[in-house]
# Entry
Amino acid sequence: MSLDYKRVTTNVLQEMKNNNEKITMLTSYDYTLAKIVDNAGIDVILVGDSASNVMAGHETTLPITLDNMIYHASSVVRAAKRSLVIVDLPFGSYQGDSRVALESSIRIMKESGAHAVKLEGGSEIIESVQRILTAGIPVMGHLGLTPQSIYKFGTYTVRAKENAEAKKLLEDSLILEEAGCFSIVLEKIPAKLAKKVTNKLNIPVIGIGAGVDVDGQVLVLHDMLGMTHEFNPRFLRRYLNLFEEINTAIQNYAKDVKDKKFPNKDEKY
Ligand code: KIV
# Structure
């Protein structure tokens, strides 16, 4: 059982796939929540560029910067004693020029202390993947719905429903494995295709909106805790309704202050 490991590594994830043990992954962007996620025994913490939406309130993941990602990643790394910490390379920090991709990855590893990086795309970014790997930095791929390409897709709908796109996705997944990625994420694609890719690949495949027949699952922490409520894709299961709970707690506090019930006689010096 993976809870026995002192630190989850990329080798541990491979062992888990080989032993048919599901891999758990959640996002975190700050010290306090990452500490809870790590303590709960989640195998992988992803410092996702979804921080752009969740933490900064941007409409897309495009505006977040490398410096922003390093700030979030450093906070998470300080909290994670057991989980493997993977950091998204943000938009503009790896496409086009593989030297830039390597520089960005080295900054993430050096300045945050994270354990691996994640990039969106297949054959188009393979030079970047290869160059990052030459520095001994583990790379996770990301195929299917790739939110950094939202202006190309025009919509956040399910990807690879048509044969041509499904074929390219399968080819890209093999290219990423061949290049040396230790794992890939498949986002919002038909469950049947995700199963096919998972069976074809030797490396672990982590799904989000990709059905149950993958090697592990990832969700955005704030979504599964119900802190966000405007985002309701079919694949999302909310385990709490923290928006409501926090709202009630804050209203109770405000009422106590207004009614002069907080602080009471014991809550003072
Ligand atoms: O940025 C992110 O949170 C992600 C996950 C949705 C996989 O890439």
In short: The chain has a mean pLDDT of 97. Residues 241-269 form one domain.
